[in-house]
Design goal:
Radius of gyration: 16 Å
Structural class: alpha+beta
Strand order of the largest sheet: 1-2-6-5-4-3
Number of domains: 1
Order of helices and strands: HHHEEHEEEE
Helix content: 25-40%
Number of strands: 6
Strand content: 25-35%
Number of helices: 4
Shape: globular
């Protein structure tokens, strides 16, 4: 996959691809399979998630799923991960409901790597720890990686005025 090909993929399609992959992996299958997938992701290596076929060239591009949990605060277990993923997908659903065609989809793109970060953070307090989960799609030479990333929560915190 060349850089030129990477730039031709519509961010809205990447968003749908990522959201559908995450939903299929953790929401639309039984809890035993979701836990198995979680354990594989927890090891830190990208795992196979499917494939994408180019409409123009017919080229098949493998899709992988990856987890970055360096910034996760608290106990990292399946129930905490599950509630975080469900909150993120709920946030995605709200965005799509407000803008069905995703015309105002907020993204940040790394011009050097082609990675597209969807600027739709999902913050959650778990056992008095704030965690923020986001999704990115990172094109690589041999595949496309959908990344779930726990982010440092401080930049997302908003102080509420005290009465």
């Amino acid at each position: 996959m060349t850089t030129e090909q990477n730039l031709n993929i519509d961010p809205r399609r990447l968003f749908n691809l990522g959201a559908n992959l995450v939903a299929a992996g953790f929401i639309k299958q039984n809890s035993t399979e979701a836990k198995k997938l979680f354990k594989e992701l927890k090891q830190g290596d990208p795992i196979k998630g499917g494939q994408l076929k180019s409409e123009k060239s017919g080229e098949v591009i493998p899709i992988k799923l990856e987890l970055d949990r360096k910034e996760f605060r608290g106990q990292f277990n399946f129930p905490n991960f599950d509630v975080s993923v469900r909150a993120l997908l709920q946030k995605f659903e709200t965005e799509v409901r407000k803008d069905k065609e995703l015309k105002t989809l907020r993204t940040l793109t790394n011009q050097d790597t082609g990675e597209v970060l969807f600027n739709i953070p999902s913050g959650l307090s778990i056992d008095n720890n704030i965690n923020v989960l986001m999704m990115a799609v990172h094109p690589q030479s041999d595949c496309m990686v959908v990344k779930l990333m726990f982010m440092e929560p401080e930049p997302f915190l908003v102080e509420t005025p005290e009465d």
